[in-house]
Amino acid sequence: MGLFSKRSRDKPAEEKRAVDAKMDEFIRGVDVDYNGVSSGVQVDEIRAMQTSAVYACVRVLAETVASLPLCLFRRDKESNAKATEHPLFEVLHDLPNNEMTSFNFREVMMTSLLLYGNAYARIIRDKAGHVKELWYLKPNLMEVERDQNTKKIKYTYSDDKDNKTYVYKPEQVFHVVGLGYDGVKGLSPIDQAREAVGLALATEEYGARFFGNGARPGGVLEHPGVVKEPEKLRESWNRVYQGTKNSNKIAVLEEGMKYHEIGLSPEASQFLETRKYQLNEICRIFRVPPHLVGDLERSTFSNIEHQSIDFVTHTIRPWLVRWEQAIYRSLLNEQERQLYYAKFNVDGLLRGDFATRTQGYATARQNGWMSINEIRALEEMNPISEEQGGNAYLVNGNMVSAGQQNIEQGGNDGTGQKGN
Fold first, then answer.
1. Structural domain range at position 388
2. Which pLDDT tens digit goes with each residue over 75-131?
3. What is the pTM of this model?
4. Do residues 114 and 197 share a domain?
5. Cβ-proximal residues to 264 (8 Å cutoff; 6+ apart), any chain
6. Rounded to whole angstroms, how far apart are CA atoms 297 and 390?
7. In this structure, what are the phi and psi dihedrals at residue 153, rounded to the nearest 5 degrees?
C-alpha cells in the first residue's frame, strides 16, 4: 500500500512539472522542436533556401564566383604566365571531374560555403602526385575534428550513396573554410542568423496563408441564439468565402448573426514593413547590395555602379582569397608552391561604363603603363602587330616609345621639344 501511494503521489507531480515547463516555453515563445527559433518555424540550411531573400543572395554570390575565370599561373622572373601545361590548370579552369564543369563545381561549393560555412571536395591524384580530379562532398555529411592521438585534423564522411563511412586525411580533402572561431571549420551563417531567417520564413508563410484564405480565419461569427450545428455553419462559411477565388465576395448573414474580426490586418501588423526589413536583414548577413536581389527602392543610376564595385571589393574579394589560399594549401605540394599559384580574374566585374573605361585607358596609355594591345585585350579586340607599335609603351610629351632613343642631332632639350 505504501509503495502504491508513493507512485501515485510522484507521477502526477512529475506530469505537472512537465506541463508547467511546456506552458512556460509556450508563453516565452520558445519551441524546442524548431531549434529554439522564436518565430515557430523550422530553420535549417535547406529550409532557409525556401525564402526568396536567402535564395537570391546565395544565387548571386555562387554564380558570380563560379563565372569568374580561375587559372593556374607560373611564377617567372620577368612575367607571370598561365601554367596550361600543369594538370591542375584543367581541373581548376575546365573540368574538375568527368561529371561537372568548373562553373558547376564552384557554384555548388560556394552554395555549401554560404549555407553551411564549409565546402569539401575529395582530392584524386595521379601517380606523380598531381591533382587530376576533385569530387564534391556534401557538407552536412562531413564531420571535422582533431584526432586526439595524432593531433591532426581528420575528416569523417558518411556517404549516403553506399551507406559507408570514410575517414580522410587532410591531404585527401580540399576544404574551403568560411568564417569560424576554432581554425578547424567554419560556422553556418544560417545557424548563426536563424532568428532573422526564421522571421523571414514566418512572414512569407503568413502572407501565403493570408492570401490563400480569403475567409479571414481571424474572425468570429456571433449568433444571438444557440447554434445547433456549429461545424456545419463553419464549413458552409468556408465553402462560400474561403480561398483567393472567393475573396471580396459579399457575405450574407442570417438570423441576426454578426461577424467580428479578431485578427490584425496586414497593415496593422506591419506585414509589408517587416518583409522589407527582413530582406535588408538577410542582405546584411551575406553582405549583398539590395539592388542585386531586386530591391531598387534606394538605388539610382548614379550609385548602382559604385555599389557594384563595392560588392566586388568587400564581398566577392574575401571569398576569392579564401579559394586561392585553399588551393595553394591543399592542391599544390611544397615544391609546386614555389613555382605556381591560382588566381581569379575580376577585371570584367570592375569595368565601368564605356566613357569611364576610355578615360582610364587614356590615362594609362599616356603615362606609359599600358600598351595598346593590353587595352585592346581588355575590350576583347584583336591585337595590333609589333611593327605598328601594338606592344609599345609611350611617355607623355611627344608620345614616343618609352625605350626609343632620340638619334637626331641636338637631341631633346628637356621640354619635350626637339633641338635645332
1. 353-403
2. 876 667 889 999 999 999 999 999 999 999 999 999 999 999 999 999 999 998 999
3. 0.69
4. yes
5. 218
6. 46
7. -75, 140
